[in-house]
């Protein structure tokens, strides 16, 4: 049995690889080791432990390391701590492959620990471009990885272009899209299950979903940016669901903006959730009139669903997208106008840009069968 | 005044950027901050503090973090500690640019700390290929850096090819070659100045220099590899100078091999040094009949000097080289035969593959004048 | 000049040693190095940097290390990080004495770093008893320290009793009491200066001050405990000033309790502050009708002021106290009844149990003159 | 089943608690978790993993954290790293009690991690006095611990005197003495089993054992001190067994002193071992004419064996001792004279000062039955 260690550092990353975890766990030749760390252990950013338990996925270790996010050294120090403690886990549990996901700042810790210990490293979602600082982390990890499972054909081409060996770069589609194809229709009461605060719109009527994170390199603007979105949405006066931001630098500004706005607008017709199981989230997504903000969900998942998306600002600037996305700058008027345009348009055709729903199975299959000759991987193609 | 922070993690890195440090320190518009960390603080791997003091170069901080090298988590943990403490230094001293050098495992810590704190990162010696694990670290840092000072035209072309903006990649030549052009003739007594152990060959007669480090991904073979080199040299029965290996994984095997061999061969005609000021080292290099081992010195500095080099094994496999290098596998017969071939050939013509001797000045000039608009750097070219 | 390094880890610790800092800074034979770390760098727990700047006290380094407090490893990891980075500061700045204050969990990091580096350690406020887990940290630091500046005669006797040398234990009184003797009358507008939220009571009328922290070993009860206090105060319907809790384990429960209560009681006649300069705080204290909660302020500062104090629960159980304190269990009825009793009593006579107002000067004087023969300190008295 | 987690940081600590480990492991109501960390994982200081495996004792985790000992921040940073990673282990494995042993600098990390996580802490060998810096660490841990298993009646009295509750302090004797009572006669060939270097004395003839560690607070003198011992022994010209020093600060000087002496005295009639299984060590001890150096073995184990001991310098100055010990200063003449005196005297009567051989059983029994009411432990007796 090959031991496959997957390190999950954030709520968003968990959703992105849930089907990979399930497929590895079910595979007769693979033993799954899950490490949960970073903001994925902190309630207010979305503790994923209950979701893993609900799916009967085994947690091999929790490694708390998130520094208080007010500090501008917090992301560096969280990353440094992660390198140190992941090395200890690897020394004790000797995985055959370590899997890291996407491009958050702290994911590079997984890569560094694995490379320093000569353990083959697999990277999911490499080769993409978003146009912000995440590109640097993602590309940096691609350079460290031994094995790449990419979400799009373009991403594969880009890694080939850098000189990586074709045997090492596999187009599997994005595992987050798998969930979209497994979705059920909306059939649950989110207010009962997830609590949260604010109005409780009837989700059988048209509603928006808003998901806006701080932009790491614009963290000083996060409060102003969220304010513009809040005022645009308020002007629209349409109900909706709002998700709190992740733990990136600038998150205090985003959260303060939301809190102050809520204090001043007690009748704002939105409900605010901290976190939601990804299947439930997909149900709400599938059912919504339009998604607004700067999450990759609007571009990735919604391309497969045909849901109109308003993508605000620079966070997803370079990301490959289908026809369902309208971009706008973080300005109240621009946001309002873009949402109106999308509501007028309605649903888009579904496209398979990010995969066909079998990425998890493909990745597990590759992990079970690819020969790992570490020395060969280290030589240029 | 722009504050330029240079992080030095190893003896070898210091030699590589000595002329950059001097040029920054002398520049009227630049304030130099030097951080010394990792093996560069440890006597048996070559503590560089005395050399910095001798050059009147200011040390802003020492950050001891080298774990005992026996552990296979040592390099990961040293890297993690470096990320943590460099972040604190950056938070307290707010450099305008952080400079990292080359490709040792722990240099990526500098890159991660700088990127996480939104401080522009300059990388020296990116874009090269050696054909071993160092490539991964080097390329990974290139992906994180905002500014690149490369040693060869090929290296620049490679980074362009990855899509980096031409304004960000500067061909300056390699600062380590600057020293070669500043060299004096052999005029000092190394035994008096540096101590060391073993025979004391007369350096007016022909002699070899040996510099063989463990190969990170072949650390289990380091003792066997050094033994083969030792026996080849012994068979040749020519005097020489041997330098102890650096602190990479496998160094215990290399050191044990040397110690055991010395115990069994008390008359071995070599002298063993731990460390040497780089100007003195260049003098000995310039004067030697042939350099043997797997240091980049044989390929880089010796290309500019025309010194015959025998390059053993995989450590420098892909590195761009001039006519002075003969490769061989780590086998006693192969090494012996390669050395004999080089001794028979003698000096080669000097080539400027790695620069013309003005890299330090060029780099300091760029650092003083390049506009740093961080947000722009973060966007793809 | 002796270099005296004072490490401050929390807002409360700063207030406790402010007069020591001022006296060291003013002393002609002492050079002051201040390190700010832990929650003392985080806005929502009371960032002390602005206060230090306002006093022209020099900050030698900031060391951010507070982990997100939700984790039950947070206090351990913050302590571990502090040991690591304080060691680096000590290695770079070589203080002659390191000073640590009181008994918060992370203060032991200062002690460990100093002892491991053979730097004499001075401890302020050792030898006291509070009856909770803080005793263990405080006593543990006393065992590590070379020099003790204690707040009460009883504390000195207790350290003597353990076998410490009389030359090493100095009764100076508590520096936090110095501030009480420097107090001015209430003459500022706290709402303008410090913002905060809630009602704005007229502070010329009688008012309460509430300061209730989570109890580390009862962290699961922190929400229930604060709720009982909130309901007791609400039943009283008297205006007041409430200070947010510090960053100890359980703080999330305390903060949630307060937030939820405020949501349900929009007319609650209290104003909520996060932090306040200690001189201003003393003004408000001096002027208040009664202090309620579990802060040591009610016992220490208020003994010197004669302000009635209601001390709730176990946090200060064993602390030496004057006549002004009434204890009660964390029960709504008990708290309400105790406050009523204190309001009926009014002011108490002032006592000098914790010093006469010159502790800062005394401590600075000792630090300037005590002979430091490290070897001798290490031998038993 | 109660989970008992024992943290072992050094070869010496392992020997001291071997019988405790065995007794816990054999106990039907206890589940043993062993963590190996610090120098106990490093070959040249005595990697204990092989010994644990040989005894079928389960290793729950290895946590490599020893910094390169040349740095004067090494012991602090090793301690800081230990706190961080032990907290993670405790969070993942939730021991019911954590056990720490004796007084080495890094043992306090175990105490801090346990206390910060509200896990009851048991300390073995508290309450003793050695008269050096170890006292501070030991006493500091005693202040943090919930439960104390002490080696002598005096030690128990001392902890009582500090105010600890009688229910928390148990006189069990020292587990290291248990081994002495289990000893067999000398029946193995140490040269075959343990390798080592140097002469191979016939151990049926009279021989010395030397065990001299650097003194932490005198680390600058470690080379000079070992030299004096070496010259005293050389003057005696009696064969013997020498054990390399532990990893404390100053160890480089001690090791260099030994290496240089061996180079100059190729016929020195001693054999040098790095490490030895404790049962074998006891055999050699039982059989030797005199033990020389500054290890506690000469005072503790040898009191039960009646072996003459020469105790050099300040390292064990205050330790409670039986009649078998002669003290001397670290001077060649003084050492030589003391050894001669002891050789002339021969064996001493055996005393039970440090226990009767059943400490391991006693401690395991207490751990299985003592009620752990954490809150009560936190209150003063």
Automatic annotation (TrEMBL), chains A, B, C, D:
GO terms for molecular function: hydrolase activity, hydrolyzing O-glycosyl compounds. It comes from the Bacteria. Residues 23-367 form the UDP-N-acetylglucosamine 2-epimerase domain. One of its GO terms (biological process) is UDP-N-acetylglucosamine metabolic process. PANTHER family: UDP-N-ACETYLGLUCOSAMINE 2-EPIMERASE (PTHR43174:SF3). This is UDP-N-acetyl-D-glucosamine 2-epimerase, UDP-hydrolysing. InterPro entries: UDP-GlcNAc_Epase, UDP_GlcNAc_Epimerase_2_dom, WecB-like.
